[in-house]
UniProtKB/TrEMBL annotation:
Residues 51-424 form the Amidohydrolase-related domain. GO terms for molecular function: allantoinase activity; metal ion binding. One of its GO terms (biological process) is purine nucleobase catabolic process. Belongs to the metallo-dependent hydrolases superfamily. DHOase family. Class I DHOase subfamily. Gene3D superfamilies: Metal-dependent hydrolases, Urease, subunit C, domain 1. Catalyzes the reversible cyclization of carbamoyl aspartate to dihydroorotate. It comes from the Bacteria. Keywords: Hydrolase, Metal-binding. Its cofactor is Zn(2+). The keyword Metal-binding applies. This is Dihydroorotase. Transmembrane segments: none annotated.
Length: 445
């Protein structure tokens, strides 16, 4: 592999933006500063004063493989992620079959090694009856344990209180949870069905999967984590009320209880259901403007630690069903960073904060080795972004296998121009010049 020199970049790292160059060799950042090419075979890329940031580490995606590959595959969605400046992803266990045994988990790792464009890890899935398997998981090689404490498919809903406490007490894995109280949701759904029948208006979604359902489940999980000393990470907060369960009093590296927010909960509100319909049907639901404002406040004051996508594609035909039959979830990895930069243009968030929440903090939170920063000796997972290159999301430039996006018709002011995976240029101005092979990430635990 020839060395690559990125010249004239605005390097964003650890809360600062500095003008400079970055030299990459053998997949590693070897020098940062004012640099001349060391050898005649060095490839030089002129950044033209664009932002150079560490690639986004997306801690929650659903790439649908195995078993649901009519929606997406590890190959198609990792490629779309690379186009979106996501260089590392952590994928969820609710595939078919579910990754609830070591053997099935390793089969997913083997498939990613063959096909993934980006770097990868996978969550192991907990159930009501697989504690013995959970205790076999090596925390240095696996991102963590995923528990569905609400809203799951198959047998992955973990709803036995004794089992949940036993898992929290015995595992040393990072536990990531989906929190929505099923009893509350079932009660709300029955009331909606009684009132509307099968064709429930989509605007009822945040009333069915209510703020109360989220808070009840999240608060119980946090109470249990405090009781047992478990390391807890709460996925996709969607309510203002939940944000008060989390603290910004200590550094992230010392926190035992952390939180994530997703792009869609920062961008959309319940006012958008009228236009977007089931395309913005997610679990947990997109809720009110007050909730969105509260999520932003908690993100910026560091009660919420990371931003993710919860990328979860479905086909157009599946989404274009009545409410009760339309699945929840949507594709987001290709447009997440550019959506965040759009929020930057609107004065909502600084570029430095975007990098903190999408790269630095996921690396710290999951204790990922040698990624998430622009530092000498670190893996060269890098992204160049032109902040002044407007473009519009259309069906023709969507890379998801499902072929649609909730951002269709949206014009972003910023554009990702280059993405490097382990020092290899994977994406450049709408093209994929090199077929990269992502690496299985490791953890310093």
């Amino acid at each position: 592999m020839h060395p690559t020199l990125i010249k004239n970049a605005r390097i964003v790292n650890e809360g600062t933006i500095t003008q400079g160059d970055v030299l990459i060799n053998n997949g590693i950042i070897v020098e940062i500063g004012s640099i001349s090419a060391k050898t005649g075979d060095t490839k030089i890329i002129d950044a033209d004063d664009h932002y150079l940031i560490p690639g986004m580490i997306d801690d929650q995606v659903h790439f649908r493989e195995p078993g649901l590959t009519h929606k997406a595959t590890i190959e198609t969605e990792s490629r779309a992620a690379v186009a979106g400046g996501i260089t590392t992803f952590i994928e969820m266990p609710n595939t078919v079959p579910q990754a609830t045994t070591i053997e099935l988990l390793e089969e997913k790792f083997a498939r990613a090694k063959e096909t993934s464009w980006a770097n990868y890890s996978f969550m192991f899935g907990g159930t009501n009856d697989n504690l013995a398997e959970i205790l076999k998981v090596d925390p240095k090689k696996v991102a963590g344990l995923k528990l569905f404490l609400g809203s799951s498919t198959g047998n992955m809903l973990v709803d036995d209180p004794q089992t949940i406490e036993e898992i929290f007490s015995k595992t040393n894995l990072l536990i990531s949870v989906h929190c929505e109280d099923e009893e509350t949701i079932r009660k709300n759904m029955k009331a909606a069905l009684d009132k509307y029948g099968e064709d429930i208006p989509i605007a009822e979604h945040p009333n069915i999967r209510s703020a109360e359902a989220c808070y009840l489940s999240s608060s119980k999980a946090i109470e249990l984590a405090k009781k047992t000393g478990a390391r807890l990470h709460v996925f996709h907060l969607s309510t203002e009320k939940e944000t008060h369960l989390f603290s910004n009093k200590i550094p992230l590296s010392e926190k035992k209880i952390t939180a994530e927010v997703c792009i869609h909960h920062l961008w959309f509100t319940d006012a958008d259901y009228a236009e977007k319909g089931t395309r913005i049907k997610w679990n947990p639901a997109v809720k009110t403007q007050k909730d969105k404002d509260g999520l932003w406040k908690a993100l910026l004051d560091d009660r919420i630690d990371v931003i993710a996508t919860d990328h979860a594609p479905h086909t157009n035909d599946e989404k274009n069903n009545v409410y009760t039959k339309a699945p929840s979830g949507g594709p987001l990895v290709q447009h997440a960073l550019e959506a965040l930069f759009e929020m930057h243009h609107k004065g909502k968030i600084s570029v430095e904060k975007i990098v903190q929440k999408t790269a630095h903090n996921p690396a710290v939170l999951f204790q990922i080795e040698k990624r998430g920063y622009i530092k000498e000796g670190y893996k060269a997972d890098l992204v160049l972004i032109d902040p002044n290159a407007p473009w519009t999301v259309t069906k023709e430039n969507i890379d998801y296998k499902c072929g649609w996006s909730p951002f269709e018709g949206t014009t972003f002011k910023s554009r990702i121009t280059h993405t490097f995976i382990n020092g290899v240029l994977a994406y450049e101005n709408g093209k994929f010049p090199n077929r990269t092979r992502g690496e299985r990430i490791t953890f310093n635990r």
